[in-house]
Amino acid sequence: MPATATDPKDQPKGGQATGAAGAGQSTAKEGLQDVIAGRTAICHVFGGDKEKNYPGRLIYRGYDIDDLAQHATFEEVVHLLWHDDLPTRSQLDQVKQQLGQNRALPSEVIDLMRRFPKDATPMDVIRSVVSTLGLFDPEGAVDTTEANHNKALRLTAQMPTIVTTWHRLRQGKDPIQAKPSQSTAEAFLYMLNGEEPTDVAERTLDVALILHADHEFNASTFAARVTAATLSDMHSAVTSAVGALIGPLHGGANEGVIHMLQEIGEPEKVEPFILDKLKGRGARIMGFGHRVYRGTDPRAQYLREMSRQLGERQKDLKFWTMSRNIEEIMWREKTIHANVDFYSASTYWALGLPTDLFTPIFAVSRIAGWTAHILEQYSDNRIIRPLAEYAGPWQRSYVPIEQREQTAQEGKKS
Ligand SMILES: CC(C)(COP(=O)(O)OP(=O)(O)OC[C@H]1O[C@@H](n2cnc3c(N)ncnc32)[C@H](O)[C@@H]1OP(=O)(O)O)[C@@H](O)C(=O)NCCC(=O)NCCS
Question: I need a labelling partner for 283 at 20 to 30 A (CA). Which of 6, 63, 146, 358 fits?
Answer without folding.
Answer: 358
